[in-house]
């Protein structure tokens, strides 16, 4: 079995420093109790309305799973505490903005275009190509990290000061790259790059982001049995808030995408009933290997006990569930509201593939071509190194993946690469 990559010395040094600080009484332990975290966020903001209390249900399950399963190191505990505080503080500010500006919640979200596909199936590329078209609205990376403007944002809107969130996002990205430089090749980004709305679901303590950074299988399975509609309703309201903060026309359709939608299509369509869906497909050997690699490269930051075989098994299971849920949901979606796009077609002829997407959307592609070409050029500069991985690193082989996902390959006629030995099965596109 080939060994997966190890974490950087930066995290080991940080972890030892935090442990030493605790031993000397200079650093307080990271308290991961719900009541303490809610109280801390309320004290920090002077507010007490967190909105729909539904989020406390997944938060309770997640905290229990972190305590019982994640085996976080000191750096992981500290990072988790910071993440929860950030999200809870944003929930308080969200309600503040809705109270100050009730017109935000009246903003329509007309016929969004939602890209739905497994992790690492080319959704980012398709999303960013469409986001380069100014006829659509999109999130920027700093807005999925910090969806909610800080108090005093009216002055920013009036041109009297600058929004702090892009600078904060740049700092967070810098630390993330110190923690693991491979994140730049796995998911190239910058504060202003178009980004998915996964952070808007995290605002409800919902979604696979938690499973990709921590070993929390109990939480993951709990979510798989719950109705995600409350999380999607909060996500829609955050989109309204972000559109208002961008001073964006509410008539422009949003371009959305996150692999979480594979599991939650019924909830998504309850909240966005006029959504147009673009499904992406890719050789499942590549999807599973790349998803496992992404999760591994995050998990090793936060825990000293990550197990590559466990990561491989879990993301094979998770990918299979995503595919099964997606296929089941499609049985109730009118054919005219969806289109299928193959990863290989985007690789070999992105212009021709995008022309077919634009015909589906009923739009002339020509006004968007120059913006797309600029994105293609920019993406080459962003992606400095290829993302390399193998199934073998995670205790998997091609046969296991093909057996589990043969029905998916057949249903969507997914192009398959040659039968390459597992240890050499690698790709260069995320």
UniProtKB/TrEMBL annotation:
The molecular function terms in GO held by this entry are: transferase activity
What is one Pfam family matched by this protein?
A: Sulfotransfer_3
Q: Which domain of life is it from?
A: Bacteria
rRNA-binding as a keyword of this entry, yes or no, is: no
Annotated protein name in UniProt: Sulfotransferase
Q: Does the entry feature the keyword Transferase, yes or no?
A: yes
Q: Which UniProt keywords apply?
A: Transferase
């Amino acid at each position: 079995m080939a060994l997966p990559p190890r974490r950087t010395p930066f995290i080991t040094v940080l972890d030892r420093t935090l442990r030493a600080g605790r031993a000397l009484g200079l650093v307080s332990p990271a308290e991961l109790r719900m009541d303490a975290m809610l109280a801390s966020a309320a004290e920090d903001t002077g507010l007490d309305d967190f909105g729909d209390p539904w989020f406390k249900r997944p938060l309770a399950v997640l905290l229990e799973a972190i305590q019982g399963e994640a085996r976080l190191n000191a750096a992981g505990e500290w990072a988790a505490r910071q993440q929860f505080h950030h999200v809870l503080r944003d929930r308080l500010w969200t309600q503040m903005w809705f109270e100050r500006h009730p017109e935000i919640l009246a903003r329509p979200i007309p016929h969004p275009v939602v890209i739905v596909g497994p992790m690492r199936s080319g959704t980012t590329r398709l999303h960013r190509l469409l986001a380069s078209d100014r006829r659509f609205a999109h999130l920027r990376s700093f807005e999925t990290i910090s969806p909610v403007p800080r108090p005093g944002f009216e002055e920013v809107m009036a041109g009297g000061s600058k929004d702090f969130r892009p600078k904060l996002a740049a700092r967070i990205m810098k630390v993330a790259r110190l923690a693991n430089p491979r994140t730049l090749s796995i998911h190239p980004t910058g504060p202003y790059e178009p980004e998915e709305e996964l952070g808007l679901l995290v605002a409800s303590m919902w979604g696979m982001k938690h499973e990709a950074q921590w070993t929390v299988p109990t939480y993951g399975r709990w979510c798989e049995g719950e109705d995600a509609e409350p999380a999607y309703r909060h996500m829609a309201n955050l989109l309204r808030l972000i559109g208002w903060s961008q001073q964006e026309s509410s008539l422009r359709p949003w371009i959305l995408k996150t692999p979480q939608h594979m599991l939650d299509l019924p909830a998504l369509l309850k909240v966005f009933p006029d959504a147009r869906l673009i499904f992406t497909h890719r050789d499942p050997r590549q999807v599973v290997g790349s998803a496992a690699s992404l999760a591994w490269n995050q998990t090793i930051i936060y825990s000293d006990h990550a197990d590559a075989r466990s990561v491989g098994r879990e993301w094979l299971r998770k990918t299979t569930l995503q595919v099964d849920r997606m296929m089941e949901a499609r049985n109730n979606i009118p054919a005219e509201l969806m289109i299928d796009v193959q990863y290989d077609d985007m690789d070999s002829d992105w212009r021709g593939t995008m022309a077919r997407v634009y015909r589906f959307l009923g739009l002339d592609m020509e006004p968007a071509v120059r913006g797309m070409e600029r994105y293609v050029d920019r993406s080459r500069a962003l992606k400095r190194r290829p993302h390399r991985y193998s199934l073998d690193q995670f205790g998997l082989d091609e046969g296991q993946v093909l057996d589990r996902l043969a029905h998916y390959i057949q249903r969507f006629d997914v192009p398959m690469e040659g039968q390459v030995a597992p240890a050499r099965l690698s790709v260069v596109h995320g």
